[in-house]
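[Meeting: bench + compute handoff]

Bench side (C.D.) handed over the final construct sequence. Compute side (W.E.) agreed to return the predicted structure before the next meeting so the bench team could plan truncations. Sequence as handed over:
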Amino acid sequence: MIKISSITLLIAFSIGMIFSQSTANNTDCTKDVDDSRGVMKPWEKGAWETGKYRNVFLEAGYSQKDIDAKLAKAYYDVFEGPNRVYFEVGDTMGYVSDIKNKDVRTEGVSYGMMVAVQLNKKDVFDRIWRWSKKYMQHQGGGRDAYFAWSVNPQTGKHNAEGSASDGELYFVTSLLFASNRWGNETGINYYAEARRILDAMWSKDGTVDGQKNIINVEHKQITFVPEGRGYDFTDPSYHLPAFFEMWAEYAKDGHEDFYRECADTARAFLQRTCHPVTGLNADQAEFSGKPRTFFGNRPGAFRYDSWRVPMNIAMDYSWFAKDKEWQQDYSKRIQNFLFCRGIDTFEDQFNVDGTLPEFILQAGGFQKLRHSLGLISTSAAASIMGTQAKSWKFVDKIWNAKLEPYEDGYFDPYYDGLLYLFSVMHLSGNYRIIKPETK
Protein backbone atom coordinates (compact mmCIF):
# COMPACT_ATOMS: atom_id res chain seq x y z
CA MET A 1 0.00 0.00 0.00
CA ILE A 2 1.28 3.49 -0.85
CA LYS A 3 1.62 5.68 2.18
CA ILE A 4 0.08 9.13 1.55
CA SER A 5 1.18 11.92 3.85
CA SER A 6 -1.24 14.35 5.45
CA ILE A 7 0.40 17.17 3.49
CA THR A 8 -0.26 15.36 0.21
CA LEU A 9 -3.88 14.84 1.17
CA LEU A 10 -4.20 18.50 2.09
CA ILE A 11 -2.80 19.58 -1.27
CA ALA A 12 -5.14 17.22 -3.12
CA PHE A 13 -8.11 18.48 -1.09
CA SER A 14 -7.16 22.11 -1.79
CA ILE A 15 -6.91 21.51 -5.54
CA GLY A 16 -10.25 19.75 -5.45
CA MET A 17 -11.80 22.71 -3.64
CA ILE A 18 -10.45 25.11 -6.27
CA PHE A 19 -12.42 23.27 -8.96
CA SER A 20 -15.51 22.57 -6.90
CA GLN A 21 -17.61 25.62 -7.69
CA SER A 22 -18.63 24.96 -11.28
CA THR A 23 -21.83 23.09 -11.76
CA ALA A 24 -24.84 22.83 -9.54
CA ASN A 25 -25.11 19.08 -10.00
CA ASN A 26 -21.59 18.52 -8.60
CA THR A 27 -20.26 16.93 -11.78
CA ASP A 28 -16.53 17.18 -12.43
CA CYS A 29 -16.21 20.62 -13.99
CA THR A 30 -12.80 19.78 -15.45
CA LYS A 31 -14.39 17.22 -17.77
CA ASP A 32 -15.26 18.38 -21.24
CA VAL A 33 -18.79 19.42 -22.17
CA ASP A 34 -21.14 18.28 -24.89
CA ASP A 35 -21.34 20.69 -27.80
CA SER A 36 -22.79 20.13 -31.25
CA ARG A 37 -19.65 21.67 -32.74
CA GLY A 38 -17.56 18.86 -31.30
CA VAL A 39 -14.08 19.07 -29.85
CA MET A 40 -12.11 22.11 -30.94
CA LYS A 41 -9.09 21.24 -33.05
CA PRO A 42 -6.25 23.77 -33.04
CA TRP A 43 -4.11 24.25 -36.11
CA GLU A 44 -0.77 22.49 -35.97
CA LYS A 45 1.32 25.09 -37.82
CA GLY A 46 1.74 28.81 -37.31
CA ALA A 47 0.96 31.61 -39.72
CA TRP A 48 4.65 32.43 -40.20
CA GLU A 49 4.89 29.09 -42.02
CA THR A 50 1.45 28.89 -43.62
CA GLY A 51 0.44 32.51 -44.18
CA LYS A 52 -3.02 31.64 -42.86
CA TYR A 53 -4.94 32.81 -39.78
CA ARG A 54 -7.83 31.07 -38.06
CA ASN A 55 -11.22 32.70 -37.99
CA VAL A 56 -12.43 30.99 -34.81
CA PHE A 57 -15.70 32.92 -34.84
CA LEU A 58 -16.49 31.54 -38.29
CA GLU A 59 -15.66 28.01 -37.11
CA ALA A 60 -17.98 28.60 -34.15
CA GLY A 61 -20.89 29.15 -36.53
CA TYR A 62 -21.13 32.92 -36.76
CA SER A 63 -21.52 34.48 -40.21
CA GLN A 64 -18.71 36.48 -41.82
CA LYS A 65 -21.06 39.44 -42.15
CA ASP A 66 -21.73 39.40 -38.41
CA ILE A 67 -18.04 38.90 -37.62
CA ASP A 68 -17.09 41.93 -39.70
CA ALA A 69 -19.77 43.95 -37.93
CA LYS A 70 -18.55 42.74 -34.53
CA LEU A 71 -14.99 43.88 -35.24
CA ALA A 72 -16.16 47.21 -36.66
CA LYS A 73 -18.31 47.83 -33.58
CA ALA A 74 -15.45 46.96 -31.22
CA TYR A 75 -13.18 49.43 -33.02
CA TYR A 76 -15.91 52.07 -33.07
CA ASP A 77 -16.55 51.76 -29.34
CA VAL A 78 -12.88 52.20 -28.42
CA PHE A 79 -11.76 54.71 -31.04
CA GLU A 80 -14.79 56.65 -32.29
CA GLY A 81 -17.92 56.27 -30.15
CA PRO A 82 -19.22 58.37 -27.26
CA ASN A 83 -17.11 56.37 -24.77
CA ARG A 84 -13.99 56.35 -26.95
CA VAL A 85 -10.52 56.52 -25.44
CA TYR A 86 -8.86 57.88 -28.60
CA PHE A 87 -8.78 61.66 -29.00
CA GLU A 88 -7.45 63.70 -31.90
CA VAL A 89 -5.43 66.86 -31.32
CA GLY A 90 -5.33 69.42 -34.10
CA ASP A 91 -4.69 68.30 -37.65
CA THR A 92 -1.86 65.83 -37.08
CA MET A 93 -1.86 64.26 -33.61
CA GLY A 94 -3.93 62.03 -31.34
CA TYR A 95 -3.61 59.90 -28.22
CA VAL A 96 -5.21 57.02 -26.34
CA SER A 97 -6.10 57.84 -22.74
CA ASP A 98 -6.61 55.76 -19.63
CA ILE A 99 -9.58 57.95 -18.84
CA LYS A 100 -10.28 56.46 -15.42
CA ASN A 101 -6.77 57.49 -14.32
CA LYS A 102 -6.82 60.71 -16.37
CA ASP A 103 -3.49 60.09 -18.08
CA VAL A 104 -1.87 58.79 -21.26
CA ARG A 105 0.23 55.67 -20.86
CA THR A 106 2.79 54.09 -23.16
CA GLU A 107 0.76 50.90 -22.83
CA GLY A 108 -2.30 52.58 -24.34
CA VAL A 109 -0.72 54.60 -27.16
CA SER A 110 1.45 51.68 -28.28
CA TYR A 111 -1.62 49.41 -28.21
CA GLY A 112 -3.44 52.03 -30.25
CA MET A 113 -0.65 52.00 -32.82
CA MET A 114 -0.77 48.21 -33.04
CA VAL A 115 -4.54 48.28 -33.59
CA ALA A 116 -4.13 50.94 -36.27
CA VAL A 117 -1.41 49.15 -38.24
CA GLN A 118 -3.26 45.84 -38.02
CA LEU A 119 -6.49 47.38 -39.33
CA ASN A 120 -4.70 49.56 -41.91
CA LYS A 121 -5.67 52.89 -40.36
CA LYS A 122 -2.61 54.94 -41.27
CA ASP A 123 -3.90 58.34 -40.18
CA VAL A 124 -4.71 57.08 -36.70
CA PHE A 125 -1.30 55.41 -36.44
CA ASP A 126 0.57 58.52 -37.58
CA ARG A 127 -1.37 60.79 -35.22
CA ILE A 128 -0.66 58.61 -32.19
CA TRP A 129 3.01 58.27 -33.08
CA ARG A 130 3.46 62.04 -33.54
CA TRP A 131 1.81 62.74 -30.17
CA SER A 132 3.85 60.06 -28.45
CA LYS A 133 7.09 61.29 -29.94
CA LYS A 134 6.39 64.91 -29.02
CA TYR A 135 5.06 64.48 -25.51
CA MET A 136 6.36 61.11 -24.27
CA GLN A 137 9.66 60.29 -25.93
CA HIS A 138 12.79 61.64 -24.24
CA GLN A 139 14.98 63.68 -26.53
CA GLY A 140 18.49 63.54 -25.10
CA GLY A 141 19.95 62.57 -21.74
CA GLY A 142 20.26 59.12 -20.27
CA ARG A 143 16.68 58.24 -21.23
CA ASP A 144 17.10 59.34 -24.84
CA ALA A 145 14.58 57.60 -27.17
CA TYR A 146 12.79 55.93 -24.24
CA PHE A 147 9.30 57.08 -23.24
CA ALA A 148 7.82 58.54 -20.05
CA TRP A 149 5.24 55.91 -19.18
CA SER A 150 2.57 58.34 -17.85
CA VAL A 151 1.77 61.81 -19.19
CA ASN A 152 -0.93 64.40 -18.55
CA PRO A 153 -2.99 64.57 -21.77
CA GLN A 154 -3.96 68.21 -21.27
CA THR A 155 -0.53 69.69 -20.55
CA GLY A 156 1.91 67.09 -21.86
CA LYS A 157 3.63 67.14 -18.46
CA HIS A 158 5.26 63.88 -17.44
CA ASN A 159 3.68 62.26 -14.41
CA ALA A 160 6.68 59.91 -14.37
CA GLU A 161 9.91 60.07 -16.32
CA GLY A 162 10.74 56.38 -16.33
CA SER A 163 9.78 53.73 -18.87
CA ALA A 164 7.57 50.68 -18.59
CA SER A 165 9.33 48.15 -20.79
CA ASP A 166 6.22 46.81 -22.52
CA GLY A 167 5.59 50.24 -24.03
CA GLU A 168 8.92 50.22 -25.88
CA LEU A 169 8.27 46.60 -26.92
CA TYR A 170 4.99 47.56 -28.58
CA PHE A 171 6.34 50.81 -30.06
CA VAL A 172 9.18 49.01 -31.84
CA THR A 173 7.02 46.17 -33.13
CA SER A 174 4.22 48.40 -34.38
CA LEU A 175 6.74 50.72 -36.10
CA LEU A 176 8.38 47.76 -37.85
CA PHE A 177 4.97 46.57 -39.00
CA ALA A 178 4.13 50.09 -40.22
CA SER A 179 7.35 50.14 -42.21
CA ASN A 180 6.41 46.82 -43.80
CA ARG A 181 2.83 47.91 -44.55
CA TRP A 182 3.20 51.52 -45.69
CA GLY A 183 6.89 51.98 -46.49
CA ASN A 184 9.01 54.80 -45.12
CA GLU A 185 8.38 57.58 -47.62
CA THR A 186 4.86 58.71 -46.73
CA GLY A 187 5.73 61.30 -44.08
CA ILE A 188 7.26 59.14 -41.34
CA ASN A 189 10.28 56.89 -41.65
CA TYR A 190 8.86 54.15 -39.45
CA TYR A 191 11.89 51.91 -39.72
CA ALA A 192 14.24 54.72 -38.68
CA GLU A 193 12.03 55.49 -35.67
CA ALA A 194 12.05 51.83 -34.62
CA ARG A 195 15.82 51.63 -35.04
CA ARG A 196 16.31 54.79 -33.01
CA ILE A 197 14.61 53.13 -30.04
CA LEU A 198 16.52 49.87 -30.51
CA ASP A 199 19.91 51.51 -31.06
CA ALA A 200 19.41 53.70 -28.00
CA MET A 201 18.34 50.65 -26.01
CA TRP A 202 21.59 48.86 -26.86
CA SER A 203 23.67 51.92 -25.94
CA LYS A 204 22.35 52.04 -22.37
CA ASP A 205 24.56 50.22 -19.87
CA GLY A 206 23.57 51.94 -16.64
CA THR A 207 26.34 54.51 -16.69
CA VAL A 208 24.14 57.50 -17.64
CA ASP A 209 21.21 58.21 -15.31
CA GLY A 210 21.10 54.51 -14.45
CA GLN A 211 19.38 53.63 -17.74
CA LYS A 212 19.77 50.12 -19.14
CA ASN A 213 18.45 47.92 -21.94
CA ILE A 214 14.74 47.09 -21.63
CA ILE A 215 15.93 43.48 -21.89
CA ASN A 216 18.03 42.08 -19.07
CA VAL A 217 20.89 40.95 -21.29
CA GLU A 218 22.12 38.33 -18.81
CA HIS A 219 18.74 36.62 -18.42
CA LYS A 220 17.51 37.47 -21.95
CA GLN A 221 14.16 38.53 -20.48
CA ILE A 222 12.23 41.76 -20.69
CA THR A 223 12.55 43.87 -17.56
CA PHE A 224 9.82 45.43 -15.47
CA VAL A 225 11.56 48.77 -15.99
CA PRO A 226 15.03 49.38 -17.48
CA GLU A 227 16.55 50.94 -14.39
CA GLY A 228 17.15 50.35 -10.69
CA ARG A 229 15.73 47.24 -9.07
CA GLY A 230 13.16 46.95 -11.86
CA TYR A 231 15.93 45.74 -14.19
CA ASP A 232 16.22 42.55 -12.13
CA PHE A 233 12.66 41.24 -12.30
CA THR A 234 9.86 41.08 -14.82
CA ASP A 235 6.15 41.14 -15.58
CA PRO A 236 4.89 37.90 -17.19
CA SER A 237 2.45 39.86 -19.35
CA TYR A 238 5.41 41.63 -20.99
CA HIS A 239 6.66 38.31 -22.40
CA LEU A 240 5.72 38.31 -26.07
CA PRO A 241 7.92 35.77 -27.84
CA ALA A 242 6.14 36.48 -31.12
CA PHE A 243 7.31 40.11 -31.02
CA PHE A 244 10.94 39.12 -30.45
CA GLU A 245 10.65 36.85 -33.48
CA MET A 246 9.54 39.92 -35.44
CA TRP A 247 12.54 41.91 -34.22
CA ALA A 248 14.81 39.09 -35.38
CA GLU A 249 13.24 39.24 -38.84
CA TYR A 250 12.77 42.94 -39.43
CA ALA A 251 14.93 45.08 -37.12
CA LYS A 252 18.14 44.19 -38.99
CA ASP A 253 20.28 45.71 -36.26
CA GLY A 254 22.78 42.88 -35.85
CA HIS A 255 21.09 41.35 -32.79
CA GLU A 256 18.99 38.79 -34.62
CA ASP A 257 20.33 35.74 -32.77
CA PHE A 258 19.85 37.45 -29.42
CA TYR A 259 16.21 38.28 -30.19
CA ARG A 260 15.53 34.67 -31.18
CA GLU A 261 17.08 33.55 -27.91
CA CYS A 262 14.79 36.03 -26.10
CA ALA A 263 11.78 34.48 -27.84
CA ASP A 264 12.80 30.99 -26.75
CA THR A 265 13.57 32.19 -23.24
CA ALA A 266 10.16 33.87 -23.00
CA ARG A 267 8.46 30.60 -23.90
CA ALA A 268 10.45 28.74 -21.26
CA PHE A 269 9.70 31.46 -18.70
CA LEU A 270 5.96 31.26 -19.34
CA GLN A 271 6.08 27.53 -18.67
CA ARG A 272 7.74 28.20 -15.32
CA THR A 273 5.58 31.10 -14.20
CA CYS A 274 2.13 29.70 -15.05
CA HIS A 275 0.74 27.48 -12.27
CA PRO A 276 0.79 23.77 -13.21
CA VAL A 277 -2.85 23.27 -12.17
CA THR A 278 -4.67 26.57 -12.65
CA GLY A 279 -2.54 28.13 -15.39
CA LEU A 280 -2.57 31.41 -13.46
CA ASN A 281 0.46 33.69 -13.15
CA ALA A 282 1.39 36.58 -10.90
CA ASP A 283 1.47 40.20 -12.06
CA GLN A 284 5.18 40.39 -11.26
CA ALA A 285 7.75 37.61 -11.15
CA GLU A 286 11.40 36.86 -10.68
CA PHE A 287 13.26 35.73 -13.78
CA SER A 288 12.93 32.22 -12.37
CA GLY A 289 9.15 32.54 -12.78
CA LYS A 290 8.52 32.67 -9.04
CA PRO A 291 5.82 35.19 -8.06
CA ARG A 292 7.32 38.38 -6.68
CA THR A 293 6.04 39.94 -3.47
CA PHE A 294 4.94 43.55 -3.58
CA PHE A 295 2.48 45.98 -1.99
CA GLY A 296 3.89 45.61 1.51
CA ASN A 297 5.28 42.10 1.04
CA ARG A 298 1.97 40.72 -0.16
CA PRO A 299 2.45 37.63 -2.33
CA GLY A 300 2.19 38.13 -6.07
CA ALA A 301 -1.21 37.32 -7.53
CA PHE A 302 -3.13 37.09 -10.79
CA ARG A 303 -4.46 40.61 -11.33
CA TYR A 304 -4.99 43.15 -14.11
CA ASP A 305 -1.65 42.82 -15.92
CA SER A 306 -1.96 39.03 -15.78
CA TRP A 307 -5.11 39.07 -17.90
CA ARG A 308 -2.93 39.67 -20.97
CA VAL A 309 -0.99 36.42 -20.67
CA PRO A 310 -3.60 34.06 -22.25
CA MET A 311 -3.88 36.42 -25.23
CA ASN A 312 -0.10 36.72 -25.58
CA ILE A 313 0.39 32.96 -25.55
CA ALA A 314 -2.43 32.58 -28.08
CA MET A 315 -0.69 35.07 -30.37
CA ASP A 316 2.55 33.11 -30.20
CA TYR A 317 0.63 29.91 -31.00
CA SER A 318 -1.20 31.54 -33.90
CA TRP A 319 1.94 32.99 -35.44
CA PHE A 320 4.58 30.33 -34.71
CA ALA A 321 3.18 27.26 -32.86
CA LYS A 322 6.72 26.49 -31.67
CA ASP A 323 5.60 25.39 -28.20
CA LYS A 324 2.27 23.92 -29.18
CA GLU A 325 2.05 20.95 -26.80
CA TRP A 326 2.57 23.07 -23.71
CA GLN A 327 0.42 25.91 -25.08
CA GLN A 328 -2.49 23.57 -25.79
CA ASP A 329 -2.20 22.17 -22.27
CA TYR A 330 -2.03 25.71 -20.85
CA SER A 331 -5.23 26.65 -22.65
CA LYS A 332 -6.95 23.59 -21.23
CA ARG A 333 -5.76 24.34 -17.69
CA ILE A 334 -6.70 28.01 -17.52
CA GLN A 335 -10.03 27.54 -19.28
CA ASN A 336 -10.86 24.59 -17.01
CA PHE A 337 -10.06 26.68 -13.97
CA LEU A 338 -12.19 29.64 -15.06
CA PHE A 339 -15.00 27.35 -16.20
CA CYS A 340 -15.00 25.76 -12.76
CA ARG A 341 -15.44 29.20 -11.22
CA GLY A 342 -18.50 29.62 -13.46
CA ILE A 343 -18.43 30.63 -17.13
CA ASP A 344 -20.70 33.58 -16.33
CA THR A 345 -19.24 34.46 -12.94
CA PHE A 346 -15.49 33.84 -12.76
CA GLU A 347 -13.65 36.53 -10.84
CA ASP A 348 -10.80 38.70 -12.13
CA GLN A 349 -8.21 38.37 -9.34
CA PHE A 350 -6.81 35.20 -7.78
CA ASN A 351 -3.86 33.82 -5.95
CA VAL A 352 -1.93 31.71 -8.45
CA ASP A 353 -3.18 28.51 -6.79
CA GLY A 354 -6.74 29.55 -7.60
CA THR A 355 -7.83 30.72 -4.17
CA LEU A 356 -9.27 34.21 -3.80
CA PRO A 357 -6.82 36.88 -2.58
CA GLU A 358 -7.20 38.65 0.74
CA PHE A 359 -5.85 41.83 -0.85
CA ILE A 360 -7.85 43.11 -3.82
CA LEU A 361 -6.07 45.57 -6.09
CA GLN A 362 -8.23 48.62 -6.71
CA ALA A 363 -8.85 50.27 -10.07
CA GLY A 364 -10.56 53.55 -10.84
CA GLY A 365 -11.53 54.06 -7.21
CA PHE A 366 -13.20 50.63 -6.97
CA GLN A 367 -11.79 47.79 -4.92
CA LYS A 368 -13.75 44.63 -5.56
CA LEU A 369 -13.76 41.41 -7.51
CA ARG A 370 -15.91 41.37 -10.62
CA HIS A 371 -16.55 39.35 -13.78
CA SER A 372 -14.43 41.56 -16.02
CA LEU A 373 -14.66 41.98 -19.77
CA GLY A 374 -10.88 42.13 -20.09
CA LEU A 375 -10.41 38.61 -18.70
CA ILE A 376 -13.51 37.31 -20.47
CA SER A 377 -11.84 38.48 -23.68
CA THR A 378 -8.33 37.15 -23.21
CA SER A 379 -9.51 33.80 -21.86
CA ALA A 380 -11.57 33.49 -25.04
CA ALA A 381 -8.48 34.25 -27.15
CA ALA A 382 -6.91 31.16 -25.57
CA SER A 383 -9.43 29.12 -27.57
CA ILE A 384 -7.06 29.49 -30.53
CA MET A 385 -5.08 26.76 -28.74
CA GLY A 386 -8.13 24.93 -27.43
CA THR A 387 -8.48 21.15 -27.58
CA GLN A 388 -11.86 20.84 -25.85
CA ALA A 389 -15.47 21.46 -26.81
CA LYS A 390 -15.44 23.68 -23.73
CA SER A 391 -13.36 26.25 -25.64
CA TRP A 392 -16.42 27.05 -27.79
CA LYS A 393 -18.15 28.28 -24.62
CA PHE A 394 -15.46 30.92 -24.14
CA VAL A 395 -15.82 31.99 -27.78
CA ASP A 396 -19.57 32.32 -27.32
CA LYS A 397 -18.95 34.26 -24.11
CA ILE A 398 -16.89 37.00 -25.79
CA TRP A 399 -19.27 37.05 -28.76
CA ASN A 400 -22.16 37.95 -26.44
CA ALA A 401 -20.13 40.31 -24.23
CA LYS A 402 -20.60 44.08 -24.32
CA LEU A 403 -18.37 47.02 -23.48
CA GLU A 404 -20.64 48.77 -21.00
CA PRO A 405 -20.69 49.89 -17.34
CA TYR A 406 -20.87 47.20 -14.67
CA GLU A 407 -23.74 47.06 -12.20
CA ASP A 408 -21.74 49.01 -9.60
CA GLY A 409 -21.04 51.83 -12.07
CA TYR A 410 -17.42 50.93 -12.81
CA PHE A 411 -16.61 51.37 -16.50
CA ASP A 412 -13.27 50.92 -18.23
CA PRO A 413 -13.46 51.38 -21.99
CA TYR A 414 -9.65 51.77 -21.95
CA TYR A 415 -8.22 48.53 -20.56
CA ASP A 416 -11.31 46.35 -20.87
CA GLY A 417 -11.97 47.90 -24.25
CA LEU A 418 -8.51 47.41 -25.70
CA LEU A 419 -8.23 43.80 -24.50
CA TYR A 420 -11.68 43.12 -25.91
CA LEU A 421 -10.74 44.66 -29.27
CA PHE A 422 -7.43 42.78 -29.42
CA SER A 423 -9.17 39.49 -28.62
CA VAL A 424 -11.88 40.03 -31.25
CA MET A 425 -9.07 40.71 -33.74
CA HIS A 426 -7.32 37.47 -32.77
CA LEU A 427 -10.45 35.32 -32.92
CA SER A 428 -11.51 36.74 -36.28
CA GLY A 429 -8.08 36.24 -37.86
CA ASN A 430 -7.30 39.95 -37.99
CA TYR A 431 -4.22 40.14 -35.75
CA ARG A 432 -1.45 39.24 -38.14
CA ILE A 433 2.23 39.24 -38.93
CA ILE A 434 2.66 42.18 -41.28
CA LYS A 435 5.33 41.28 -43.79
CA PRO A 436 6.87 43.73 -46.28
CA GLU A 437 4.70 44.43 -49.28
CA THR A 438 5.92 42.49 -52.31
CA LYS A 439 5.95 44.26 -55.66
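W.E. noted at the follow-up: The chain has a mean pLDDT of 94. C.D. will use this when planning the next construct.
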